[in-house]
Write a structure and sequence with these properties.
Order of helices and strands: EEEEEEH
Oligomer: single chain
Number of helices: 1
Structural class: alpha+beta
Number of strands: 6
Largest sheet: 6 strands, mixed
Radius of gyration: 16 Å
Length: 106
């Protein structure tokens, strides 16, 4: 499975895009792992976006007696110099928003 995504950026920064190769692994009936890594050459590069070529991570989805536990690990280089405080804020906000959106879909 491949995923193409564009992340919008505020001026003066260009939008970022990335292509992820996704693998779903079943460890057991109660535990799945979703691994992804950047595949920047899978699609042609666009001049209007900055391609993120360093992106990888893994989700563990575990069925427990009282619900579902999701563990997330992601690392990427957005190819821009920004203050560390921006990345600290982003590293907290993005996983929470992702899980909120996932919960709303389930």
């Amino acid at each position: 499975i491949y995923l193409y995504q564009v992340s919008r950026s505020n001026w003066p920064f260009k939008n970022r895009d990335h292509i992820l190769a996704i693998r779903i692994l079943e460890d057991s009936k109660q535990k799945y792992r979703i691994r992804f890594k950047a595949e920047p050459s899978y699609l042609e590069d666009h001049d209007k976006h900055v391609r993120i070529d360093d992106f990888y991570g893994e989700w563990e989805v575990i069925q427990e007696a009282n619900g579902v536990l999701v563990k997330m690990f992601t690392s990427f280089n957005p190819n821009v110099n920004l203050p560390k405080s921006f990345f600290r804020t982003l590293s907290k906000r993005v996983p929470l928003e992702t899980l909120r959106n996932l919960r709303a879909k389930l």
